[in-house]
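Let us work through a complete example step by step.
Step 1: write down the sequence.
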Amino acid sequence: MANGTYKNFGEHLRWWRKRRGLSQLELAGAAGSSQRHLSFLESGRAAPSQQMVLSLAAALNVSLRQQNAFLASAGYAAIWRESQLGEPELAQVDGALDHILAQQEPFPAFVVDRHWNLKRANAGAARLVAFILGAVPEGPVNLADALLSPAVMRPFIVNWKEVALHFIRGVQADAIADGSPESSALLLRLLSHEGLPELAHSPAVEEAPRSLLPIHLLKGSISLNIFTTIATLGTPQDITVQEIRIENFFPMDEGTTSFFRQPTA
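Step 2: predict the structure and record it as tokens.
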């Protein structure tokens, strides 16, 4: 079995328990069960109730998407829906995202999904992209590919190795935590970019400790130094809502601040 493909609930449960590094006793205690019952569930000698499935999934700290997968492997219907941005059910979320993007102006802000596919951006983000690439790309955009590809952002990031190493370590952590084929596929795709496999196995050693890792962009005579924050939406009850990330960029010096505060043409 690999990357989250399971034959039954017991196999599914055992795979996640081992991935989390838990013994049967530890997981049973966290889920309010007994080691004997957990052993029976993993072997298929006992079938779980819906509540037990959810209790085990919660104890394993898996996402709403994976909780649905747990339920399906035990023969139960999914309980967490996956809405789409723009649908009436997510009107309040859409409003909150628009507010966050507007409040970040004139500095860049992006909304992405769990695989870094761009969902929306503010005017500051469009200005940054147009400055670097000459124009805002049309069609789907994946920020992870844009950052790591030699053909997009890489030539303009002075400290690209540091930035890329930090980013790819985050994607690796996501893939471990998520355990889905899609997350593993994203990691493999990113590691296929030139120089990434070697970089991913290098130690993260800095010459001097810093409170933040800057992204140093340079194009022509214009130098920009920015750092990012990643925010998520709290108390999600929908898969899409849980997987949304908002990345805000902030200037690290007066020159960068002035660049973004300049009136647009």
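Step 3: interpret the result. The chain has a mean pLDDT of 91.
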